[in-house]
Amino acid sequence: MRTEQWHEAMPLGKTLNMTLVSATADEVVVSMPWSETLTTTGGALHGGAVMALADGAGGTCAFMNLPAGAGTSTISSATQFLRGVRSGVVTAVSRPIHVGRTTIAVETELRDDEGRLVAKVNQTQAVLLPT
Predict the structure, then answer these.
(1) What radius of gyration do the chain's Cα atoms show?
(2) pTM of this prediction exceeds 0.85
(3) Parent domain of 8
(4) DSSP-derived 3-state class of residue 107
(5) Residue 40 DSSP SS3
């Protein structure tokens, strides 16, 4: 899957200037540059933007693990913010920790340009089977 195809499926990724670096069933990598338009007090990247990056990567990871014809939707997400980002690029790496018939659990680590952990997100995705 190319970034352009990913943006068609998730237009918010294009709005936030996210890039799909790689996507397999075992690992999805998505990056997003810091932008002044996405900041909060003190010039730090807004937590909502960080969470959107994690959700986009995690949802894609779940999608890569779906049975044919199924869809997915986030049903829970827990974020631990560990440091602010005031420049550079944030990279999200999502890996499945459980792939079941009705849910897929994904763990996402977000790191800055220096490899420092910015946030950790655990989310559960529903497996939406066609009717």
Answers:
(1) 14
(2) yes
(3) 3-128
(4) strand
(5) coil
Q: For residue 7, give both structure tokens.
A: 């943006």
- Provide φ and ψ at 54, rounded to 5°: -65, -40
- What pLDDT does residue 130 have? 86
Instruction: Using DSSP, state whether 35 is helix, strand or coil.
Output: coil
Number of domains comprising the chain:
1
The rounded distance, in Å, linking the Cα atoms of 22 and 45 is 23
Place of tokens 């014809």: 69
CATH number of the domain bearing residue 15: 3.10.129.10
Integer Cα distance of 128 and 108 in angstroms: 21
Is the pLDDT assigned to residue 1 strictly greater than 90?
no
Number of H-type helices and E-type strands within the chain: 3, 6
Range 58-86 burial, b when 16+ CB lie within 10 A, else e: bbbbbbbbbeeeeebeeeebebeeeebbe
> What are the strands, taking DSSP E only, across the chain?
19-23, 28-33, 71-81, 89-99, 103-111, 117-128
Contacting residues for 11 by C-beta, under 8 A, at least 6 apart: none
